[in-house]
User: Which sequence fits this backbone?
């Protein structure tokens, strides 16, 4: 996804040097991971809950106008709890990487 300079989170983070907030990069990786998990046949019709992060590192800023490419890998799923890893890249360079923890639940 390309991050437009007009997006509201850039205006306050930071006014003179706008960068994408790290929490939004992590959220984007988590959502990509949820899509990957929910595409597995045994989890169709379930909900994915973001449970945490592990050893997340920010390697470079994501600036207005950058295109962010997300990569997620599912590493382990046991019962309804799992772990994966994610990377967010800009122009082939890692902007953020780390572990993602999730839980699966039923739609009520």
Assistant:
């Amino acid at each position: 996804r390309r991050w437009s300079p007009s997006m509201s989170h850039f205006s306050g983070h930071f006014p003179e040097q706008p960068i994408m907030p790290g929490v939004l990069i992590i959220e984007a990786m988590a959502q990509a991971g949820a899509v990957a998990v929910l595409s597995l046949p045994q989890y169709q019709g379930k909900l994915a809950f973001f449970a945490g992060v592990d050893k997340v590192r920010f390697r470079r800023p994501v600036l207005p106008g950058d295109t962010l490419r997300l990569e997620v890998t599912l590493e382990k799923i046991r019962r309804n709890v799992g772990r994966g890893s994610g990377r967010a890249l800009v122009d082939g360079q890692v902007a953020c990487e780390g572990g993602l923890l999730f839980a699966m639940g039923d739609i009520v």
